[in-house]
Amino acid sequence: MSSPLKLGVAGLGTVGASLVRLLGENGEAYERRSGRPIAVAAVAARDRAKDRGIDLGAFQWFDDPVELAAKAEIDVFVELVGGAEGAALESVKAALNRGLPVVTANKALLAHHGVALAKLAARKNTVIAFEAAVAGGIPIIKTLREALRGNMVSRVYGILNGTCNYMLTRMEREKLSFEACLAEAQRLGYAEADPTFDIGGFDAAHKLTILTSLAFGSEIDLESVFIEGIERISAEDIEAAAELGFRIKLLAVAQRTESGIEQRVHPAMIPASSALAQVDGVTNAVAVDTDLLGSILLAGPGAGGNATASAVLSDVLDVATGARIPTFGVAPTGLVPYRRARMRAHEGGYYIRLTVHDRVGVFASVARRMAENAISLESIVQRKRAGHEADAEAPVILITHETTEAAVRKAIDAISRDGHLSGEPRMIRIEPLD
Amino acid sequence: MSSPLKLGVAGLGTVGASLVRLLGENGEAYERRSGRPIAVAAVAARDRAKDRGIDLGAFQWFDDPVELAAKAEIDVFVELVGGAEGAALESVKAALNRGLPVVTANKALLAHHGVALAKLAARKNTVIAFEAAVAGGIPIIKTLREALRGNMVSRVYGILNGTCNYMLTRMEREKLSFEACLAEAQRLGYAEADPTFDIGGFDAAHKLTILTSLAFGSEIDLESVFIEGIERISAEDIEAAAELGFRIKLLAVAQRTESGIEQRVHPAMIPASSALAQVDGVTNAVAVDTDLLGSILLAGPGAGGNATASAVLSDVLDVATGARIPTFGVAPTGLVPYRRARMRAHEGGYYIRLTVHDRVGVFASVARRMAENAISLESIVQRKRAGHEADAEAPVILITHETTEAAVRKAIDAISRDGHLSGEPRMIRIEPLD
């Protein structure tokens, strides 16, 4: 019989507690699947006395994750502390310095220090596994790093933030305003008291940088991500989208273009009849476009203790069966610098909603500004608002054919300067799906 | 620098030729991703002179795949010959007997001989990889065998046959009859001259047995699969399904029940608003329900030279990086015998379409037969057929609440005997999705 694989688990929040419980309950099955017993040997957390619903008596206890990583008698270090710096970073470094494989769910740590840590792991001839860092229980890391190794990726994109998707789904179904929906999401625990990290698109951006590196073999570059959150999406936009055959999702997209790689997080309109558009609530989904496959889609739970623990377990069992894949799919010295494509050069269709004073000549003026910027229109319609028959303000919705971000911005600026608008113009990018 | 991994490729059809071409074109990228060069060393096919658009000059040639597997100087044997017996089986055995890892796309071989071959591989301390055998470019084998190793699966199901899905999609979109659609699919090359293997559900059944074994750690049992093809699906059923909020797909389902594991392939109604229902044309999709994840869905191309080659390449690169996972996820001696759940005990909702003589008392009689078999009805509606106002025959559509297959069959038999039917009764199972 093989000797047990001894884990050191730092961080006993929801995911850490799930992990320890599952290893206790399903040990026999995991041993059958990995060829050797898996055992927790040491744990670290802040408060030893806290009731987590699991018995920690058999494990060596550390107050300090860094000390656990540096000194505990373990074969694998599992980092579930969280945060890009401090104990998370120092404990991972300590474990790698000992040559221990590291399993982590920490997207922020990887987005900020991924390449440096990958280099350290390679020097110490060990690995960092991080399936749980992106899209929870969806095996997108394994898919990009292993299953698609024969492919050249042209785009990876998806719904990576459950809070935003939950809110957009409820806004659509119940015709709620953004503000009402946010309050409700906070009440139900789907949004934080300070929701900026989620609804501002920053959480999705962290995850995107990791997918970009895996998909394109490039170094991580968080600073270069174009980020726009869902704060300005209105019930009116969602309704107009539905009438036009679209749904609005917060998408994170990394895409190879002629001028470099676009990394962007923003609300996007996608065809309502697509599989991605059916991904509702807190569910996540990731699609990958490649040369050999066309497009594949993975959807599943993006968060939660058990779903995240499932991903951590998959990494632990991979380590147990001897998997030794470089952190970002290629040796870290083989990662190419990230070459940024400017957002102004982004090409695509656009939805533009203008609130105009209802007077003669407005349509003609708007159409002229579009033409001046070489934007051709698929449609231009004036929406009648129910119960506002005598309204002096009317929304005008434009759908453009493919054009550039720069042209759209210039046209909207010009229209604003013309003085026809009675409200802020709104623009939402249309993402073509395969 | 590492020594190259030398491949022997038996079978140079669409997939084999794609594989050889891709290894030539992308060798540098694959080396970066696997840490060592990958090189074709030997090939086997029937006709050496045939133009496959690739240069075979540098490779050792074999007329006989078995001889290649037994004698060529290679590190990995790639079996793309096809067929459950003969050269495919003998060559795989020969390679395993030498301790060589085998990569295969051959679902029939695994469905018939998978367990015996897994045992041989384990004895020889080597592996069989077969990502390409099920759902082409979708990494469902890797997902079940590796990514979900921490989970207990309760159901795995999906759209595994592109021909059937293509036909059902066109029947729905263009309101075609089954016969017209089949003729069209044959003309376009989406269906074989003898389409029985696809439209009869047998291809999906082969693939399902492999997923069952991976999902439940059980031995493969092809004989036990309940199989019903799409031959009897009519445009009328598809239209009625749409009106009721469903779409019809040929599903392959393996499900743990109290009495054992159901393995079934049959047309099924699924909610039209689900992501799975949007999987159209030749696209495949697989969903997995587990204890930790709830449900995840993978969708992508299920066939084609490049998509299948992508899966083969993923296996080859896994072998190159040293992956050593048992064939069906656990040591073959650890596979449990397949315990069959009887189809008559299947529980679910049913769609039943009866063509009845339009006379007094028919509704009451049908309703009584249902009640006698303890079947409660969600709805019972008589459909008016356009242009058949004066029709003496009218279709009656019943949707049942959850009941058993045995009860439904008994009820339909009784209704048939009552003499009210003027046409064959039709029944389609409703598959609940998570």
Describe this structure in words.
The structure is a homodimer of 434-residue chains. Chain A is α/β, with parallel strands linked by helices and 434 residues long. Chain A folds into three domains: 5-133, NAD(P)-binding Rossmann-like Domain (Rossmann fold); 142-300, Dihydrodipicolinate Reductase, domain 2, CATH 3.30.360; 346-430, ACT domain (Alpha-Beta Plaits, 2-Layer Sandwich). Helices cover 36% and strands 24% of the residues of chain A. The first copy, chain A, is built from 14 helices and 17 strands. Chain A has helices at 14-25, 27-34, 65-71, 86-97, 107-123, 140-147, 162-174, 178-187, 196-199, 202-216, 235-243, 305-320, 362-372, 405-417, and strands at residues 5-10, 38-44, 60-62, 76-79, 102-104, 128-129, 153-159, 226-227, 246-257, 260-271, 283-290, 294-301, 347-357, 377-382, 393-400, 403-404, 426-430. In chain A, strands 7, 8, 9, 10, 11, 12, 13, 14, 15, 16 and 17 form an eleven-stranded mixed beta sheet that branches. Chain A has a six-stranded parallel beta sheet with strand order 3-2-1-4-5-6, with helices on both faces. Chains A and B meet through helix 2, helix 6, strand 12 and helix 12 of A and helix 2, helix 6, strand 12 and helix 12 of B. Chains A, B: Residues 351-429 form the ACT domain.
